[in-house]
Design a protein that fits this description.
The chain is built from 14 helices and 12 strands. The chain is of the alpha/beta class. A 5-stranded mixed sheet has the order 4-3-5-12-6. It has a 3-stranded antiparallel sheet with strand order 10-7-11. Helix 2 crosses helix 3 and helix 3 (28-35) crosses helix 4. The relative contact order is 0.13.
Length: 313
């Protein structure tokens, strides 16, 4: 393979960005999703890049794209370039005090569907010149690489390179629809049909197994939002966040869950971006709004919510 200096002269950052996306995903389709382009575009870009470098970077295998030794060497160098560019971008952005521009926010589906929209509307009213781009998914985007500017996450303490605050706690309880309860009135939870989660929610799966080892899910999903809608449709009982399920007139809280089902809610950014005006504005606004919702998120506002909805347990 050619020297790194010679290769750097022939490669531009956009080529390296496509190359790294394929190297990370191990497939053209995965890289295409990351880059927001189609499969054929990635195929052409990788082929052209290999022609320019006169070296094969990937072995095309039935299971995906595997790096060749030359590709591994390029990956190591490209990762250093990526970090330098990302670091420079963060530092420059960190000097921007304007309350305008774009903010990329990433979170999981249950928060994107059931929690954020009403607060995004309020943020829009307060800061009409700031555009919010919402990226929804269970995959954890890398804030250091500027895949997103802000993350709203649940779970353990954040990485040391990230700064932010714990802005709430999500309590869970067992919920079911009125139609399901009418069909299945038995008191023993283990006898019921359950809506469960797959390995993407490993922590919840472990806790549910300890709490009710006899329960057999009739449906497993990687989406808490999907579990909520399945419960509303009468498919079975589901462990759901109180902050979402208590707002649903079609769902009733059936039983409490132990404290171990509570998850911390974190609002995070990279340390280089925390003084950027538009990012600081979003962090402060959302933290304040979520603090007002602490009773709802922690399941303590249940009696008031039931009263407002005019329903009974």
């Amino acid at each position: 393979m050619e020297s790194s200096a010679c290769m750097d002269a022939k490669a531009n950052w956009d080529d390296l960005r496509v190359f790294l996306a394929v190297a990370r995903a191990g497939s053209l389709s995965g890289a295409a999703r990351t880059l927001g382009v189609n499969h054929s575009t990635v195929f052409r870009r990788i082929g052209a890049f290999e022609e320019v470098l006169t070296v094969r970077l990937f072995e095309r295998q039935p299971g995906g794209y595997l790096l060749t030794p030359a590709g591994e060497e390029l990956r190591d160098g490209a990762l250093r370039v990526e970090e330098e560019i990302a670091s420079l971008s963060r530092k420059v952005s960190g000097q921007d005090l304007r309350l305008s521009g774009s903010v990329r926010v990433t979170t999981i589906d249950m928060l994107a569907f059931g929690l954020l929209p009403r607060h995004l509307a309020g943020f829009r009213d307060a800061y009409p010149d700031i555009e919010v781009e919402l990226i929804v998914g269970n995959a954890t985007l890398n804030l250091s690489r500027r895949e997103a500017d802000i993350a709203l996450r649940v779970g353990n303490a954040p990485a040391e390179t990230l700064v932010g605050r714990r802005v709430g706690r999500l309590a869970f309880a067992v919920y079911g629809s009125a139609s399901y309860r009418a069909r299945r009135p038995e008191a023993d939870l283990a006898q019921h049909d359950w809506i469960g989660y797959d390995s993407e929610h490993e922590a919840l799966v472990r806790r549910i197994t300890r709490f009710l080892p006899e329960a057999k899910p009739t449906l497993r999903t990687n989406s808490v939002a999907s579990a909520l809608f399945a419960a509303k449709a009468g498919l079975g009982l589901a462990p759901l966040p109180c902050g979402l399920a208590d707002l649903e007139p079609d769902l009733t809280r059936i039983a409490p869950l132990p404290d171990e089902f509570t998850l911390d809610l974190w609002l995070l950014t990279h340390e280089d971006l925390r003084q950027t005006g538009r990012i600081r504005a979003f962090l402060d606004f959302l933290a304040e709004e979520l603090a007002k919702e602490a009773p709802l998120l922690e399941g303590r506002g249940h009696d008031e919510i039931v009263s407002i909805r005019g329903t009974t347990q």
